[in-house]
Q: What sequence folds into this?
């Protein structure tokens, strides 16, 4: 009997984790305080907005893809913060290797907010299609995104601006070891972007690592859910999707006209 009480006490005090999936106990009061507000928003037909943050190459995209795959019977869309980079001007382009793409100022947060507000109001938006070779957002046609029941906003710094955070019903931080993130980044940038290892390592030490420590890691405290090991944590993904389905089932969502693809 005594041992059972001890176990119960330990579980209560540590907010026991399930296979690496855990709620941040520091956020519990905030979740309770905002539950009423979130319920009111859902009753007015607004979508369920999920933020997925974490360091570069932490596995955010994999986590988003896995959530989308399991939400196959729901209207869901992913919006990437990378789409909202500022255009690099000619002066900056001449020294592009000294441009910090991991700094909050590199993003057009106002445009991101405008696009998200339209989606939350049931309006379709055109999302920029950023070209990482010319560092411009007007090289390719924009991507048309229709309003959805679920909007997943993904990016390294989506928790940095409180106005963006306030749009979210659920905030997820994908946590991965620094060595794993660096190895993934080297592989991605050398294979997909044609960069040499020396350049990748130079940018990592000058910009990526300091930005993670100064701007990204501090936002981990805002997360409702932290996922260690990213896409390898299937238990966490399953629990998140189950929670999303429960939330969606509690409220009346949009009714859509299949022919016009419009909200009724």
A:
């Amino acid at each position: 009997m005594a041992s059972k009480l001890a176990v119960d006490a330990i579980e209560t005090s540590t907010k026991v984790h399930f296979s690496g999936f855990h709620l941040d106990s520091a956020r519990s009061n905030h979740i309770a305080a905002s539950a009423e507000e979130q319920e009111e928003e859902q009753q007015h037909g607004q979508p369920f907005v999920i933020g997925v943050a974490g360091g570069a190459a932490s596995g955010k995209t994999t986590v988003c893809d896995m959530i989308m795959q399991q939400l196959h019977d729901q209207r869901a869309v992913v919006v990437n913060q990378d789409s909202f980079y500022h255009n690099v001007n000619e002066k900056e382009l001449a020294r592009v290797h000294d441009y910090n793409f991991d700094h909050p100022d590199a993003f057009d947060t106002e445009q991101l907010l405008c696009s998200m507000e339209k989606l939350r109001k049931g309006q379709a938006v055109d999302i920029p299609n950023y070209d990482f070779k010319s560092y411009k957002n007007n090289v390719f046609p924009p991507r048309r995104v229709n309003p959805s029941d679920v909007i997943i906003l993904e990016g390294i710094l989506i928790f940095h601006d409180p106005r963006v955070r306030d749009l979210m019903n659920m905030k997820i931080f994908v946590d991965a070891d620094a060595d794993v993130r660096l190895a993934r980044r080297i592989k991605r940038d050398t294979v997909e972007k044609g960069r040499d290892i020396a350049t990748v390592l130079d940018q990592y030490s000058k910009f990526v690592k300091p930005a993670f420590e100064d701007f990204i890691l501090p936002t981990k405290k805002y997360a409702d859910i932290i996922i260690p090991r990213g896409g390898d944590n299937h238990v966490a993904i399953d629990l998140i999707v189950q929670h999303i389905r429960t939330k969606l089932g509690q409220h009346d969502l949009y009714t859509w006209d299949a022919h016009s693809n419009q909200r009724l």
Summary: Residues 2-21, 28-33, 39-44, 252-259 have pLDDT under 50 and may be disordered. Strands lie at 22-23, 48-54, 76-80, 125-127, 143-145, 150-154, 170-175, 225-228, 256-257, 262-263.
